[in-house]
From TrEMBL:
Protein name (record): Orotidine 5'-phosphate decarboxylase
Record note on quaternary structure: Homodimer.
Binding-site positions, substrate: 18, 40, 67-76, 132, 194, 203, 223-224
Keyword Oxidoreductase: no
Keywords (A to Z) from UniProt: Decarboxylase, Lyase, Pyrimidine biosynthesis
HAMAP family (UniProt xref): OMPdecase_type1_B
Reported function: Catalyzes the decarboxylation of orotidine 5'-monophosphate (OMP) to uridine 5'-monophosphate (UMP).
Gene name in the database record: pyrF
Length: 246
C-alpha cells in the first residue's frame, strides 16, 4: 500500500466532538479547521445542541457523521432516517442489533427523503456492530453472546450489507475480517484509536493510528486523544504524521 498524503490521511479522520454544548464544540472545530477532517456529532452534543449545531458545522465546510446509533422498531427508524437525511449530514449510523428489517428501514427512509426532494444528497448509512468498549469477556459473560467478538462483528456486517447499508462501525482489529466477508468496498469506520502511550479510558478493542491505517480501515474515529489534548491541533497533526508514515 502506498503511503497516504497528509490530505488523504486527514480525510480519513473523524474527530468525535463529544462536548456539552455548541459553543465548546464549535470552538474546538474551529481549532481544527483547515486540516480537512470530518466532525462526528454524537449523543452528548446533539442532545444538548440539536440540529442547529450540525447545520453550523456544515456551513463551516465540515463533513459531518451524525452518530446517534438509532435502535428502535423499523417504522421509527425509517422516520428518523428521513429526518436525518433532510438535515444534510454526510453519514449516520443505526445499531445492527435492530436486525435486518430495522436496518433496511433506515435505507428506505433515506431514499424517501431524497426522492421527495427534501434532501440534496443521500448520506452514507452504516451499522454499529459490537461497541469498541466491549471486550471478549463482556460479550460472552455479560451480554451472553457466545463465540469470538470478531465473529459477532462479521455477522452484523453481513446483515448490514444485506440490508443495503454501505458499511459498519467496528474496531480496527476487525477490518480484515469484515472486508473479507463483505468486500473491500464495504466501508469500515473504526473508533478505538489510541496513539502509543495514550490513555485507553473505556475503550477495549484498540490500535494505534498507524496500525489502523496499515490494517486498511476507511475512517478513524478519534475523540479524546485529540479533544482532551492541551493543544488539539498539535495532537491531530502528530496523528496525521503517524498515518502518513504507516
Ligand atoms: O459509533 C461510534 O462512533 C462509536 C462506536 C463504537 O463502537 N465505539 C466508539 O467509541 N464510538 C464513538 O467513537 C468515539 C470514540 O471516542 P474516544 O474514545 O474519545 O476516542 C466516541 O464518540 C464514541 O461514541
Amino acid at each position: 500500500m502506498a503511503n497516504l498524503s497528509r490530505a488523504d490521511a486527514a480525510g480519513k479522520v473523524m474527530v468525535a466532538l463529544d462536548k456539552p454544548d455548541a459553543a465548546a464544540a464549535l470552538a474546538l472545530a474551529e481549532q481544527l479547521r483547515g486540516a480537512g477532517c470530518w466532525m462526528k456529532v454524537g449523543m452528548e452534543l446533539f442532545y444538548a445542541a440539536g440540529p442547529s449545531v450540525v447545520r453550523e458545522l456544515k456551513s463551516r465546510g465540515f463533513r459531518v457523521f451524525l452518530d446517534l446509533k438509532m435502535h428502535d422498531i423499523p417504522n421509527t427508524v425509517r422516520g428518523g432516517a428521513r429526518s436525518i437525511t433532510r438535515l444534510g449530514v454526510d453519514m449516520f449510523n443505526v445499531h445492527g442489533a435492530g436486525g435486518l428489517d430495522m436496518m433496511s428501514a433506515a435505507a428506505v427512509g433515506v431514499k424517501e427523503a431524497v426522492d421527495s426532494g427534501d434532501a440534496e444528497h443521500a448520506p452514507i448509512v452504516i451499522a454499529v456492530t459490537q461497541l469498541t468498549s466491549t471486550s471478549q469477556s463482556v460479550l460472552n459473560e455479560q451480554i451472553g453472546i457466545p463465540g469470538q467478538v470478531e465473529d459477532a462483528v462479521v455477522r452484523y456486517a453481513k446483515l448490514a450489507r444485506e440490508a443495503g447499508l454501505q458499511g459498519v462501525v467496528a474496531s480496527p482489529l476487525e477490518v480484515a475480517a469484515i472486508k473479507n466477508a463483505c468486500g473491500t468496498g464495504f466501508i469500515t469506520v473504526t473508533p478505538g484509536i489510541r496513539p502509543r502511550g495514550a490513555d485507553t479510558g473505556d475503550q477495549s478493542r484498540i490500535t494505534t493510528p498507524r496500525d489502523a491505517v496499515t490494517g486498511g480501515t476507511d475512517y478513524l474515529v478519534i475523540g479524546r486523544p485529540i479533544t482532551a489534548a492541551s493543544d488539539p491541533a498539535e495532537a491531530l497533526d502528530t496523528i496525521l504524521k503517524e498515518m502518513t508514515e504507516a
